[in-house]
Each structure stands twice: as structure tokens, then as C-alpha cells.
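Lecture 7 notes: from sequence to structure.

We start with a single chain of 198 residues. Read the sequence below before looking at the structure.
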Amino acid sequence: MPTDREREVYDFVRAYTRRHGVAPKLKEIAAHLGIASRGVVHRYLRSLEEAGLIVIEPDVARGIRMAAKSTRRVTLPVLGRIAAGLPIEAIPDETEIDLSEFFMGPNRFVLRVAGESMIEAGILNEDMVIVESRATARNGEIVVALIDREEATLKYFHRNADGSITLRPANRTMAPLRFAAERVTVQGVVVGQMRSYR
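Now the structure, written as C-alpha cells:
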């Protein structure tokens, strides 16, 4: 199992590669970690390679790539339906849900939610949302938006008639945010959600 520091390196390399289309340099990883030693970064990368999480191509600039994902299916049985309103008869079911198919997909990543701006959409603090990386969104979709290339937020997306963009929370105690279009960069659209009760 990777250490916390190695996991931090892995997460940074994966996010950087998705965003820029190339892997980060050692000095960029070191800067992210707040350390000066590229040798320490190299040790972290070697450990991740030994764990099968990345592949290092020797003598290649930015020669780090993510290891191919396992094709092993992860499934759970679907045992029936349960009422969330009036009680209904429990009807056994014999199917399975392939969790990898349900959550995984090209250009998808996970973010942990901090805050309560989307609670009326059922997205609570500490939930995890599955995001499909996209640069555009349709009105009404929940997006990860970057404001002024600095602050990221999770909100409903709406493009107004004048071209401006409103980012609307799902919390009636919070006001919508309206920005000129050039101030908002859509980074992805929420396609799923996870929550642990343990």
C-alpha cells in the first residue's frame, strides 16, 4: 500500500496528466509537495512504480504514465427493492451491479465535497462526487467550476441570455453567484455520487 505521501504524489501526477495531457516534471512534483529534493520525489515515484500504479519511461522527458487499469470487475448483488415511502413487498432479485461500469469511465475522477452549498441536491459535506472531465455544460447540470482560475466550486450551471454564467447553490440560505463568462472555467460535470455511513 502506498504511504500517504506516495498517494499524494500519485494523485498529483494523475490530476496533472488529465489536465495538461502530459506528466509533470520532477521539479513540479517537488514544488507541489513543498520540498526541494528531486531525489526524494524520485524515490516516491519508484515506490509507485513497484506498486504497479505508474510506469516510468527512462530517458524520456515527462516520462511518467499511469499504469493500465485492471479489467477485473467489481460487483455487488442486487437483492431487491426497498421502499423509501410506503412499505412494499420485498421482491427478491438475482441481478448484479458492476460497480466499475457504474462509476468508471473515460475522463472521470472523484472529488470529496467540503461544505453545504449542495445539500438540497442531496450532496452533503464529505460526500464524494464522480466527475466527468468536460469543458462545457448544459443548463441545470451540476458542475465543477473554476472561478478566475483560482477557486473551484460545485454548483448548478446556468448560462444566461446575456452570455454571463450563474452558479446556483442547492441551499436556500445561499445566494447564486453570477459571473462574466470569461471568469468561469467548467472543469467537469457530476455524473455520480458516493457516501459512506461508516
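The chain has a mean pLDDT of 84. Keep this in mind for problem set 3.
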